[in-house]
Write a structure and sequence with these properties.
Pathway: Steroid metabolism; cholesterol degradation
Structural class: alpha+beta
Bound molecules: protoporphyrin IX containing FE
Radius of gyration: 21 Å
GO biological process, one term: lipid catabolic process
Strand content: 5-15%
CATH topology: Cytochrome p450
Protein name: Steroid C26-monooxygenase
Number of strands: 16
Keywords: Cholesterol metabolism, Heme, Iron, Lipid degradation, Lipid metabolism, Metal-binding, Monooxygenase, Oxidoreductase, Steroid metabolism, Sterol metabolism
GO molecular function, one term: iron ion binding
Length: 412
Amino acid sequence: MAQTAAHHAQNWDLRHEDFNDPSEPDLLYDVYAVMRERCPFAHTDTPFLSDVPGGAWVATRYADCLRIAQDWEHFSSNPAAGSADHVVGDLVVMVDPPRQQQLRRILNPYFSPARMKALRPQIAAETDSLIDGFITDGVGDLADVAWRQPGIVLFKYLLGIPTEEIGVCFELTDTALNGTAEQERLAAWAGLYQRVDALVATRSREPGGDDMIDVLLRGEIDGEKLAHVDVVGNAMLLVQAGLETTANAMSFAFHHLATHPGERDRMIAEPDLAPRAVEEMIRYAGSIHGLHRTVVKDVEVDGHTFRRGETVVVNFAAANRDESVFPGADHCVLDRRDNRHLGFGAGVHRCLGSNLARLEFQIGVERVLHRMPDFELRPGAEPEFHGNSITRGYRSIPVVFSPPRRNVGGVE
Ligand code: HEM
């Protein structure tokens, strides 16, 4: 029998099997509610992302998560901060200002809203082509759209990596995050690094391109080109950050709409709702369940004193269910206003790919609603839920819908 939320809250372990139960997708949020209520910072012996001797503190309240995310001078993103350990390459997400800002200046222009918006036709065409794979059958799996569209867009239009690489990069990214043993996870990171290293090496022999890897290869800080490890590390980060996050968030949206026909019909009837609905779905179920910070100077937050060297897990998903900020936080309210969610983080590390993620998500939902407006979960078929991860979502969403009517010469 599953343990109670109160029991889990004493020593939160995201890998616990109870959180993978598809019939209890909300148990984890019930645990967060207890954690938020009991004390500002709970403690876990088993932080998800890496083994930390002595465990870590966990921030689950909105105000605390926001404060910590904004205070890089006390809460470093560098897991080796204050120790002699060295992380290979300066990944923008794992260094602090000023280095972080210098790297960000190289990457930022590439992710501008205008540049992302220009990708709309390509993203729509790629989404349609995935839907074409099953549209005439009247049955399909919407996970095929949610999981493949972000990878195709990222590899083909941003990174300039052959799409044949998506499968292996996805497997490695997935194992690096979700593998059961630390050794297995580290081996997968190393495998992903090698794979991206080889791709970068090929690209550096063919200069002059205009994609993300070229931007990194040309990038300079104080007149010096980025070191090879920094180029590979940041390219690897983009692969990893851009695949599972958006896919999981979109998979939730498809599952939600397939199980809530009234909401699905409302989105069709009110297309202008889409941007707000997408934000709400990210707040409600598409946010990340904990990223690490290392305390570099003793500091007090919310009456709790953090000591130098301790680790804090900032749980954006829990913060986004904080009732004191989001009334009715445990409901997905498609037209929610004042939705200042932390799904994309806050402070200097705020998500670099948020414009891309929003666009992919919105177009994914738009195209599915347009092409299969009456889709619903296939009776008798079980969606496959993956709940033991910092990005939770559905790996399979079997649906039925009315196929388009055929006319002479093709499909309508
Ligand atoms: C729904 C989808 C997404 C969610 C929920 C999400 C969430 C986040 C969050 C919470 C952070 C802050 C990390 C921190 O504070 O340590 C972040 C950073 C980042 N994200 Fe995203 N992300 C998404 C999609 C993407 C995409 C599509 C890309 C790129 C292709 C991307 C690239 C990055 C990068 C490079 C950073 C690090 C920025 C920095 O450290 O300055 N993300 N993301």
